[in-house]
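Record type: monomer structure entry
Structure origin: computed from sequence
Chain ID: A
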Amino acid sequence: MELVEFAVNIHRRGIADERERRSLDLSVEGESAAMDTATLRGIRTELDEYLSRFDRCFVRRESREYLGVYVRGQLGPLERKSVEPIALDAGVHPRNLQQFLGLYKWDDAALAREVRRTVRDDHADADAIGVIDETGMAKKGNKTVGIQRQYCGSTGKVDNCVVSVHLDYVAPDFHTIVDSDLYLPHGWFDDPTRCEEVGVPKDLAFRTKPQIALDLIDRTLADGVPLKWITADEGYGQVPEFLNGVAARGLVYVIEVPRHVQGWTPNGRRLGRKIDRVEELWWRGGPTWTTYCVKDTTKGELVWRVRSTAFIPSWDPTKRLRLVVAEHMLDGEMKYFLSNAPIETPDSSLLTVAFSRWHVERSFEDAKGEIGLDHFEVRGYRSVQRHLAVSMASLLFLSRVSRRLRGEKRRAVDMLASAAGDRRPA
């Protein structure tokens, strides 16, 4: 593995991260990407020690060695990070690495648990945010498990792809994916022969993406990873069972909802079919608009103005939630969020959580661009799930080393600032 290139790349990415995240000063000192010998030696040692954490997941030494081959291949400079290029670069037979993913006896669920326990032990924070999101991985043919024509975020259109659901863990100055699972479309369960060909477990039932997301949360909490907040896009916010499930687990959610969500505001007026009628109501009077600088970027400030009120959802009139309406000050884009946060929670805190979804997008960018999350060419259910698990382990190492080389701690959950300059986000 070419650790020199690996170290230089993550150092450069750390510089780019600092430029993007800093609100008041986008300049970064010490931008040289040069890595000294001690740093490179430290990375080699750190990777060896890191991989030893997963020894208990393997019965045979051979399987443990192939984990190292796969992780080093994912972290290395290969342009294509599927089984064959990784194997040939490491001097092993591609069939052996394919069997490592598909046939060899080792516990991929235990490997994923070790990833979460490492996060619990080394990166835990009581105010951590869990970000739920899915990603599509475009593939050809119709033999890969879970493949179907469906919306693919990578291509931005309906495409032939495989979709996986993920939970990103966001703590101060750190984020990484802590659980992943394959989404199997309903049509697959109507074809038992097709499922059998790729090894789908016979006892596996169809699960919606929100149901998978709740399973990810359950596993993460069961492994002791502390979470306080959950956020997700409107695909999850429009599912009351998901919102109720998050609340039942003792977590606070701030989740985007679509415009057509229905309910009541405290004045008792029923909202119409489109939630933007709330905006019309508030233009005639109501809670005061407050302006926040959500984020500074190289293209300028992202400024939103916000109003919030108590909200009674039509699907459960016994609940009293918080409705947050945010309008982009430049293009007029509207976003709507529901939260079960206590009434005294400041709007700034809710908005911080709501706009923390960029972390999972960055995790996807790193996982695909650096790790090769979407490069897999295996087709079986077990192989794909194992690829997701090992990719989580590789991404965690990448996140840890990148954080260390940045050399500074940052709070990912900072107080927001008003346009008057009270407080600003990281």
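Annotation 1: Residues 249-357 form one domain.
Annotation 2: Confidence is low (pLDDT under 50) at residues 18-35, 270-281, 408-426.
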